[in-house]
Amino acid sequence: MRRLDHVSLVICCLCAVGCDPVRTTQQSVRLQIVDSTSGTPAAGAQRQLKYDFNRAEPLSKETREPRAALHNGRREFWEAFPWSRGVSGRDGRVQISIEYTSLDRTLGCKPPASQDMIAGKPYLVRVKADELPEEELSVVIKPGASVKAKSFTVTVLAIQEPRYVETKNN
Fold it and tell me: Can you give the pTM of this predicted structure?
């Protein structure tokens, strides 16, 4: 009987405290990619988007902040994280969505500003079209931001506000 009391106590504590709530947020960015030389839209080009870990979270050689072991763990996670993909239309525009799941204790129907994982942050854009070599460009995601490389120029047209999406886990 004593064992049953302990199990009941544990269950009551879990119900009272609860579990860490997680929610999935989706955010999209609209890009336009054009040929750097002619300015014509890069229609049908394969686009990939991924957080630019090297630019956003450098390891300071002077202070070693954050600690190298923690930084290396984050790097391994980033390297395993998949690229978000999209194919441009005839006008060279593409909308790429990024979904992420994180702890979120808010009760509202809109994510708080702290859940905006795209705006103002550097992202890598990988572009491959026709016979041109693949290029990887780093751009800070804010409307009007642009970066030019040898074959392609990437311009950020718009950023969607973060929104919650339902998944089978939440």
Answer: 0.78
